[in-house]
User: Which sequence fits this backbone?
């Protein structure tokens, strides 16, 4: 566990990400009811800060204490240092959940349950790609074709797409993007 935290801390220091808001978040955030929000694997808080600016009370969860130290100390942001392999989400708590560039299949059913009725989910992460694509080397961190869509059956799907993209470090990737609302 300590090795994982050190690996993530080192990655945030040596390979810093752009501070820009994820385009899918920027495009769809206004469809969410302002209230409680969750940023899963928030990193340095680029989307966390944007949600707070929009009036949300944000729980920003990450394993990297370095990344969390880069998030502003605001009354509207609660920083939660947690190993997401062990962390459990509270039932029926959030009006908005954002999960960007992170996959933990154990959390997928919990994400559905922690969304309030009418709550919005914005989820985008890497999908298996062949050819000249940058992707996590561990297949556990890669979605299969249509896996994200199937994981959130039962929610009202607003948008779903699997497409080529450029990651925060300027590398070519393939991602699955989903925006859905809980009835």
Assistant:
């Amino acid at each position: 566990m300590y090795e994982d935290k050190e690996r993530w801390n080192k990655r945030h220091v040596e390979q810093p990400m752009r501070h820009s808001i994820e385009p899918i978040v920027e495009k769809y955030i206004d469809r969410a009811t302002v209230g409680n929000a969750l940023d899963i694997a928030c990193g340095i808080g680029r989307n966390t800060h944007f949600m707070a600016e929009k009036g949300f009370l944000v729980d920003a969860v990450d394993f990297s204490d370095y990344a969390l130290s880069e998030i502003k100390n605001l009354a509207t942001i609660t920083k939660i240092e947690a190993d997401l392999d062990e962390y459990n989400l509270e039932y029926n708590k959030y009006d908005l959940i954002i999960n960007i560039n992170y996959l933990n299949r154990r959390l997928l059913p919990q994400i559905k349950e922690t969304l309030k009725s009418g709550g919005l989910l914005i989820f985008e992460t890497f999908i298996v790609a062949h050819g000249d694509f940058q992707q996590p080397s561990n297949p556990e961190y890669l979605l299969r074709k249509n896996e994200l869509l199937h994981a959130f059956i039962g929610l009202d799907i607003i948008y779903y797409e699997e497409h080529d993209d450029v990651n925060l470090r300027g590398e070519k990737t393939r991602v699955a993007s989903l925006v859905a609302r809980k009835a």
